[in-house]
Records
---
Amino acid sequence: MCGIVGYIGTRNATPITLEGIKRLEYRGYDSSGLAIIDAEGNLKIHKKPGKIIELERTLPSPEKIYGTVGIAHTRWATHGEPTEVNSHPHTCCHHKLALVHNGIIENYRNLRKKLESENHIFVSDTDTEALVHLIEHFANKTDNLTQAVQEALKLVEGTYGIALISSDHPDQLIAARKGSPLILGIGENEFFITSDVSAIIIHTKKVIYLQDNEIVTLNRDSFKITTLENEAVNAKISVVDWDVSSIDKGEFKHFMLKEIFEQPVSVENAFRGRLFPNLSTVRLGGLNMTGEELRRIQRLQIVACGTSWHSALIGKYLIETLARIPVEVEYASEYRYRNPIIPPETVVIFISQSGETADTLAAMREAQAKGARALGITNVVGSTIARESDGGVYIHAGTEIGVASTKAFTSQVTILSMIAVLLGRMNNLSPTFGASYIKEIQKLPEKIQQILDTNDKIMEIAKTIIDAKNALYLGRGVNFPVALEGALKLKEISYIHAEGYPAAEMKHGPIALIDAKMPVVAIAPDDMIYDKIISNLQEVKARNGRIISIATEGDKRIAENSESVIYVPKTIYTLQPILTVIPLQLLAYYVANLRGLDVDQPRNLAKSVTVE
Ligand code: G6P
């Protein structure tokens, strides 16, 4: 969501923190700001609504804004419009403290009222400003800044990742977290604070993932992590094992396009070393479950948000088909407040690219509180869901920066297909079928590449729908969630209203919308329900609807019913989504690009939603 970067060391903090938040801009981009303590010990704050480039344009030259301790923030507004005054960093009455914050202070109204009654003057509409005044309140009583922050945070209800500097303590930077990710980077004679490791990876790979209720005090040559009760914490230093090239656009115009084209590799990374064709099964050691425990599973629940929720729907098809284990799929935001029933021998899987989505995390904690075993399928190593789950699988898709998720989706489905084989082989899936399934998984990267090679044609088709106001995506069976995902991609980045529907349900409502202007995207590969979907398409055609079909190579019949056809190679029915989604990602990308929109940072969205 928002992004935080802090620096303390011997170099100028301004370019370091500014470059850092630029790397995080994909997470929030409605306003930004930075604060440093300059050489004279004065606190300097600069902020601007809009993209970081707006802030950069108005900053004085680096010599004029030089300081070796600083913090910066890129915002996705929760409380208060994205104006200059509501941007972070926020300061206190005496302009000595500067605070950046991710998360939501839920009791900020009460805190603000109380502080205003003590003559604190507020200038913004934000929840964050209440916290900086609260810290000021305690800082007025002690010389120990850490203690002032600890006392203030004890009164806070809600979630936070914060970084704070003070002109009274020019050799310190304080950071703390509860429910919002925060990472300490350890360099040579310098330290970094960030909400996402990609912001500091060019400076250091040595990091500590802070835990909830921990606070870190950075001095110029040392750091100390404690709890809010001031108990010392012995934290583990991790080494990040990816490098900066994974967060560059390379030859591509947008991260989203790069990530779409990475899928032959990212899907391969998801299964690499995990498939055992000779034994007709897969191994997923991170699940932390013995064969006996896996065999005892009677029921699965899969919980997620957004694109990850669409993967979960496909997971249901996969697992129920291959392993014959019943699966329920739920939105995390509903699950967490519904007091879910989790029968014995149920395992709950949480899917989250970022591993930080607030609703998914809260749902996982709820399931764990009820005694369930929680497994995480995540991309970001060291993320909160990865750390707090009882086991899980990393999808190893590499950093995903485009706000519209693409490669994470296909990797999640690849992992779910492997879980389905694993559980299937422990139940009633034959070795022959297990082996042929695994072989087919291995062929996916090559088949994805074949679809990517048709991207020029997909761009031409995109040209035909750029002026559409609405679009309908139809699919059946395992391709119904693909229809949902295709529609989501289009609306997220092109702002064309789009709906995904099970094809046969169309006649119960959406058919009323069909006319010569409305594109209908039909996912109709050659499988056992092909004839049924062809009938649905004829219903569309009879009403002058325009049909773009996704069909299996060699299918000639589909062209009779379609304005255009995009072909995908044949694969096993339950693996089709990994192929059929690729043209839909490209279609959405080209429509948005042709409409001149900011594909990587669509309006109002955020990559990782760390607030409710
Ligand atoms: C946001 C993103 C989506 C993503 C969803 C869930 O809405 O814009 O692309 O699918 O969050 O994110 P997660 O990281 O939990 O998969």
---
Amino acid sequence: MEGRPTPESMLEALDSAKRTALALIEEALAEEDPAGVLESIRLRFLGKKGEVSLILKSMGSLSAEARPAVGQAANATRDAIESALARAKDTAEGAALDRELRAPPIDVSLPGRPVELGRRHPVSRTGEEVVRVFERMGFKVASGPEIEGDFYNFEALNIPAEHPARDMQDTFYLASGHPVAATLHDGTRGPEPGEVLLRTHTSPVQVRSMLRSPPPIRIVCPGKVYRRDSDLTHTPMFHQIEGLWVDRQVTMADLKGTLQLFATSFFGKDTRVRLRPSYFQFTEPSAEVDVSCTLCGGSGASRSEMEGHEDAGQGNGSIAGKPPQTGPCKTCSGTGWLEILGAGMVDPAVFEAVGYDPDTWSGFAFGMGIDRVAMLRYRIDDLRMLFENDARFLDQFP
Ligand code: PHE
């Protein structure tokens, strides 16, 4: 458009813009992916500074009579280009979809590169299996903090400050920290935790459970415990599971029956249990509990000595027909028994510390080392191997 635009020249320009645009759109459809080209056509004609827009803007210079006709023509041109663009876009999208559907399907047959699945640690597996046996007897699992307060780990368990029994559980004390006070069953705060330490046994979980809920109670508490100890049979961290059963008239017979049922469920039906007198501050009377040796079946004879005999290695513990012993069993050092746990009747002083009436309630508690049970189960002779995380060692367990 040269000079002052006339209505005629503008109508002509609109007509030419429309024809050019439609031709370009037609051409664009031949492209593989016309979206970009279509957008540039839109900008060239309909954009702010596009050809049609400029014509519309210059209408101000027309006479009032000429304006409507040119305006209408400009709008019609814009509409025509817009709808041609929309149709072209539809067509292009349809074509793209068509191409995709006709293309050969994605080949998913390339073999994967599998990552070998890990496995449960022998200690975790053993702990879970022990828990499962007690769950079948109606025990619920309870847990508590590993960073404990003196009150829950010692004081409430009838082990006062300066008591020599504390030496047996050589304790890691922490310089600072805030062990939480127990929450009582009415939602209020339990006794102050006192000095901060790593729990030396899982018994504080029993204290917390009794503070939290009134009797009766039947729980097992598996978890990590810590003592300053390190040699062939001790690591500074190890695993315990403790049990607690409080009800009316619970007796030592219930304790023995429960442990006997555990032993046969866990180690095999011929396993026998024996209680020996012992001492713990929180139980009275107390006992060390042995099971008949899982390796020699209680005979005390080494396996190699038993091989070749008819009832060898069946773990039936029968003394009659015992093969001649020329060497002691290594697992039980020839005694025929394996010590696996400590137990006893809950001391009335513990009940008093947690607000249970010792005249109404009685109960038993027991505690065993999960690691030791795992060693017996898998015949591992060095406890430390369990915690070195050597995959060559761990891979040997199913
Ligand atoms: N808490 C004891 C310990 O760790 C084990 C135990 C628990 C003994 C319950 C008796 C009763 O040595």
